[in-house]
Amino acid sequence: MSKQIQERSADTAGALLSVQNLSTYYSEDETDVPVRAVDGVNFEIARGETYGLVGESGCGKSTLGLSLIRALPPQGDIVDGEIRFEGREIGQLPKSEVKDVQWADISMIYQGAQNAFNPVKTVGDQIREPLRVHNIVPEGERERRVRELLEKVNLQPDVAEQYPHELSGGMKQRAAIAMAIACEPDLLIADEPTTALDVIVQAEVLNMLQQLQDDLNFGMLVISHNLAAIMKLSDRIGVMYGGKIVESAPAETLYDAPEHPYTALLLQSLIDPRRPPDQVETIEGTPPDLRDPPSGCRFAGRCPLATEQCRDMEPPLEVVGEAHEAACFHHEEVSEL
Amino acid sequence: MSQQHYDDGDEQMSTAKESIDEGSSRRFDRFRSFLRDFLTNRKGFAGTLLLGAVVFISVAAPLIAPYDPEAYGVGPALAAPSFEHLLGTDDLGRDVLSRFFYGGRISLLVGVVSGVVATLVATLIGVPAGYYRGRVGRWITTAIDMSLVFPPFVLVVVFAAYAGSSVWNIILILSLLSWPIPARTIKAKTLSVRENDFVESTQALGASDLRIMRQEVLPNILPVVFANGILQMVYTILMEAAVGFLGLGDTARISWGTMLYFAQKQGALSSGAWWWMILPGFGIVLAAFSFILVGSALDEVLNPRLQRRTWGDD
């Protein structure tokens, strides 16, 4: 991979992935009002860093992941912004021109690995697929490479000859990881890597991702609605709400001192086994309609701190502390929530 | 890590062989297990037996037919079944049993060839119709829908009258007209397969659409394609019989349909020659029924999710 580092500010040039003002909309046709699933998002991921993206269902986090690997469904379109991967712009190019990046440089662990495998092909056949498509390993050695990959994720090499339905959920998830690292990507996108797994297997999978990252030094984007899992894995966390990143901070800072009311409420809604169920906090209301988002802050309708200003104006993402940004006019009051 | 073993003598044996030629031995194993599953399936067994009988009488007709099917007056006209003529004779004194054996050839030929061609066309058109979203998919779907409005039967009749009713003309027209319905079924199945994450993930992998349709979609819809193909053969066998019965078939060649046509035309019913009508009718039903049994058994055996159950029982 040629590293054409453009003349950009020093910190951007060093980033593995830099996303500027990315907007991805969904629409059936030209006359349709688009759904603004991702609306002006900025973030960066460095090599070896893990960036966690958290938010509730429908906030645009999966769309963001699919935008990066350019595998949006046909209704989805990157309408604005840029995605720079190792300095190369890959967001606006036609899909046919980024096929060499897909999976070879940026790969993905799909949401629900249970369904990410073709039921009528052996697991080995499917892990071999990226090697075949990108012709990375010579044909005669692919069999061996598949076995190596399976060993890397603690699966028996014999699993290669089995069909997906013969594997347990955890085994399938690990096989999906093996497939994702097949071409030794520089960036790994993990969309809900632990959803639908039991807690023991969840921990196992998280540890495995951590360990693989230490070995292979890829950057990682972890997408989840599971705040606890994200906290464990990520160096930095971005909180997404209504298609926008509303707060981003190092994991510890975010946990100890959130500066956006949505983050604070999200943290309070974490289930604590000692608390009786009726005292678990929930966030009242529903997320905004992304076809017609409110003009001001998108969280205003559900926010206990919202004022007239919040409904009229959109709060910009501002630096509120060291490496800590939040988009809230009232971020100073958040600690009192 | 727990690993599954199938306690099966055959599999053990093949493990030893695997060192020699891993790939082909595995494929052979899979084929053998498919064959075993298919023949232990009740419908599969019965269907194979019946279909085997139909194929046998057609292929072996020259050997097993007691008389020349075209020879006039090998017996008295309209003779009832006897030891001489096991199933009687027709109005020209031809042996009905011999004609019945030969008649299966046309029915099978027309059924299988136009069934296969129609299914191939249906797959080639149905898969992209379901796979491509948006404009391309809509265009192909519209084309299928437009082809659906042609009434096949009427066109077969018109075409037979216009271009001559040779067997190959009938095969051609049946192939060209009977693909739209299976194409719609295949399209519908493709639509549901397309929504799977594994299709999306193969797209994310950078694989081409053609490759995804061939490698990911097709293996998943193959049971539907097979089942449709078999139904298509049933349909074309029945169509051929109907065309023959109307006297629009190739009257120079014996088929079950034309046998019925002549029987009806020469008043077999009114003269009480039931044997002349029953046998070809029975042949048509037998052929159609055996195909249906085989198709239904294939559907049960080829579906990998149903397959697991039989493996678990081993």
Automatic annotation (TrEMBL), chain A:
PROSITE patterns attached to this UniProt entry: ABC_TRANSPORTER_1 (PS00211), ABC_TRANSPORTER_2 (PS50893)
Q: Where is the signal peptide?
A: none
The places in or outside the cell where this protein is found are: Cell membrane
Kindly give the InterPro entries that the UniProt entry links to this protein. AAA+_ATPase, ABC_Ni/Peptide_Import, ABC_transporter-like_ATP-bd, ABC_transporter-like_CS, Oligopep_ABC_C, P-loop_NTPase
Q: Does the keyword NADP apply?
A: no
The processes (GO biological process) annotated in the record are: peptide transport
Q: Which Pfam families match?
A: ABC_tran (PF00005), oligo_HPY (PF08352)
Pinpoint the ABC transporter domain residues: 17-267
> Topology with regard to the membrane?
Peripheral membrane protein
Task: Please provide, alphabetically and separated by semicolons, the GO molecular function terms listed in this UniProt record.
Answer: ATP binding; ATP hydrolysis activity
Q: Which UniProt keywords apply?
A: ATP-binding, Cell inner membrane, Cell membrane, Membrane, Nucleotide-binding, Translocase, Transport
Please give the SUPFAM superfamilies that the UniProt record associates with this protein: P-loop containing nucleoside triphosphate hydrolases
Tell me which GO cellular component terms the UniProt record holds: plasma membrane
Q: Specify whether Transport is a keyword of the entry.
A: yes
**Where is the major localization of this protein?**
membrane
Q: Which domain of life is it from?
A: Archaea
Q: Which NCBIfam families match?
A: oligo_HPY
Protein name from the UniProt record = Peptide ABC transporter ATP-binding protein
Q: Which organism is it from?
A: Halorubrum coriense DSM 10284
List the taxonomic lineage.
Answer: Archaea, Methanobacteriati, Methanobacteriota, Stenosarchaea group, Halobacteria
TrEMBL record, chain B:
Instruction: Write one Pfam family the protein is assigned to.
Output: BPD_transp_1
User: Matching InterPro entries, A to Z?
Assistant: BP-dependent_transpt_permease (IPR050366), MetI-like (IPR000515), MetI-like_sf (IPR035906), OppC_N (IPR025966)
Where do the ABC transmembrane type-1 domain residues begin and end? 108-295
Which residue ranges run through the membrane? 45-65, 106-127, 139-161, 167-186, 217-238, 274-298
- Main localization, broad class: membrane
Where is the region Disordered? 1-21
| Location of this chain's protein in the cell | Cell membrane
Q: Carries keyword DNA repair?
A: no
Please list the GO biological process terms of this entry: transmembrane transport
Cite a GO CC annotation: plasma membrane
The topology of this chain with respect to the membrane is: Multi-pass membrane protein
Query: Which keywords describe this protein according to UniProt?
Result: Cell membrane, Membrane, Transmembrane, Transmembrane helix, Transport
By its UniProt entry, which SUPFAM superfamilies does this protein fall under?
MetI-like
CDD domains reported for this sequence: TM_PBP2
Matches recorded under PANTHER family: D,D-DIPEPTIDE TRANSPORT SYSTEM PERMEASE PROTEIN DDPC-RELATED, OLIGOPEPTIDE TRANSPORT SYSTEM PERMEASE PROTEIN APPC
Protein family (similarity comment): Belongs to the binding-protein-dependent transport system permease family.
Give the protein's recorded name: Binding-protein-dependent transport system inner membrane protein
**Species in which this protein is naturally found:** Halorubrum coriense DSM 10284
Q: What is the lineage of its organism?
A: Archaea, Methanobacteriati, Methanobacteriota, Stenosarchaea group, Halobacteria
